Amino acid sequence: MTLEEIYARLDDPSRPLYFRADGRLGEAGGAEVAAVIPALSPADFGSPAFREEYGLKLAYVGGAMVGGISSRAMVRALAEGGALGIFGASGLPPSRVEEEVAALNLELAGRPFGSCLIHAPHDPAWEERVTEIYLKHRVRVIEASAFMQITPHLVRYRLSGAFRRPDGTVVLPNRILAKVSRLELAKRFFAPPPEKLVRAALERGWLTPAEAELAPLAPLAGDLTAEADSGGHTDFRPALTLWPALAAAAREAAARQGYPVPLRVGAAGGLGTPWAILAARAAGVDYFVTGSINQSCLESGLAPAARELLAKAGQADMASGPAADMFEMGARVQVLKFGTLYAMRAQKLAELHRQHQALEDIPAAERENLETQIFKAPLAEIWKQTRLFFMEREPAQVERAERDAKHKMALVFRWYLGQASRWAIAGAEDRRADWQILCGPAQGAFNEWARGSLYEKAENRRVMDLALNLFHGAAVLIRRQMARTLGVAPPGPAPELKPRPAAELAGFAGG
Ligand SMILES: Cc1cc2nc3c(=O)[nH]c(=O)nc-3n(C[C@H](O)[C@H](O)[C@H](O)COP(=O)(O)O)c2cc1C
User: Fold this and answer.
1) What is the average pLDDT across 320-343?
2) In-domain check, residue 452
3) Which residue, 151, 349, 401, 432, could crosslink 408 as a Cys pair with Cβ 3.0–4.6 Å?
């Protein structure tokens, strides 16, 4: 068999390969077989316990994307493919979140899905209301993100409905996938819900005494997603240093607390090619979370023109910009800088906010520039709209802004940051230069890999086809590595590995 033929066989992970003692390749097992390169399927990626607990075929999660970008259609496509989709509830009014999760319950008829609970320090009423919606509609998985501390809503969600079986096992029907980039926060999520917050929830009638009593026996979150350099909110942590640290935290917490089941760690951030999946699998992560690459797919809630832009981006086409929701805290998000001026303009606003105490302190020429270039309206008009918005939603913000000119400036600037994301979702052509598209380098990496293939164009991208291609490509790489270890390797570089049409992956996916 030629090396070319061997590679053709290696690149079909649905069939095992048998190497005989004489160095030749055999068709089947037997006494003369010296080494086997096993068949691999998507089930060989991630933890079987994770798949079982969440009722999945693949340990693959399409992470939440704000404003319904991870749309109902995306969540449905992932569920149909046996993966877990998280609805992008953040940034949406609670009434819309309720509509969407109620519809998902109907459409998915028992298939698993999750929804996002984002920490909203500037709008705690949102966190409370959305938690109530999740409990009311029995949303059994939430992705908890951007938390800097544990809040009573997380505790309420996790313990609601908890009970003990006659054999003594504690059952918590509500699961939290907690997204973290820092070790200290990981430790808090892996600990049982804090006693003080459990007591407070009990006093508010959010939990029954029987539910509260079980609090010390289980972690607040059994699954923790290590979010490395990613699209959206990010601390820009390198994945390679974050994974082992969080895995060690999981082991320590499980040993300290004596939980009956292990804690799990998933990887998010930078997963956009088989090479990244290969590295995460080698590090032993329990599940894989993608975000950026899904945003350019057909099922995404982002406007088609914005998806096309994403499909053209390279790895270096991302920039860090101020986060709209945590603007005054200085939180950062990663955004696309290719084809939009948003990153530059938002940064300008952050600098002005840092340098000045009030809108009126900004030099007149600069203010005029803001009004003509960025806001395209007088700042007084923007304040009028912002004031109206907050009077309905959170009047305390208006009271504070009328006392504190710097806060007023922040609210006005946040108008732009918030609208910019809506303009991208809606595909507003007159605001193309202002589109805010959260995105990480994984998107560029995928684009580079997909160049010349069917998936070069956004219109051909479907979330599950990408997911299967990532696992398939990684399976091919694993088998090539095994062959190399056995001394079967080409003298030059291995043949190019490209994503394949979905039909060619059927054998692998069904395996
Ligand atoms: C457009 C966009 C919006 C996002 N919005 C949220 C969000 O609302 N909540 C959340 O937990 N994560 C959010 N994320 C993060 C993703 O769920 C996921 O963790 C991350 O994108 C994974 O890293 P990657 O971008 O490198 O694939 C967002 C990511 C993107 C690209």
Assistant:
1) 91
2) no
3) 401
- 297-331 residue pLDDT tens: 999 999 999 999 999 999 999 999 998 888 888 88
Ligand 1 centroid vs 219 CA: distance in angstroms?
Answer: 24
User: Residue 468 region, left (φ>0) first, then alpha (ψ -120 to 50), else beta?
Assistant: alpha
Taking CA atoms only, the protein residue closest to ligand 1 atom 6 is 65
Judge whether 472 and 278 are in contact, CB under 8 Å: no
Give the integer Cα–Cα distance in Å for 86 and 68.
10
Our mutation pick for probing the ligand 1 site, out of 61, 66, 154, 436, counting the most ligand atoms within 8 A of Cβ, is 66
Query: Within this chain, do residues 97 and 177 fall inside the same structural domain, yes or no?
Result: yes
How many angstroms is it from 231 CA to the middle of ligand 1? Answer: 5
Pick 469 or 489 by higher pLDDT. 469
Domain containing 23: what range? Answer: 3-39+462-510
Report the C-alpha gap between 425 and 126 in whole angstroms: 21
Task: Give Cα 50 to chain centroid, integer Å.
Answer: 17
pLDDT in tens, 79-91: 999 999 999 999 9
The verdict on 415 and 506 lying in the same domain is: no
Q: Which residue has the tokens 């959260």?
A: 438
Number of domains in the chain: 3
Residue 355: strand, helix, or coil:
helix
Residues 437 and 506 in one domain: no
300 within some domain: no
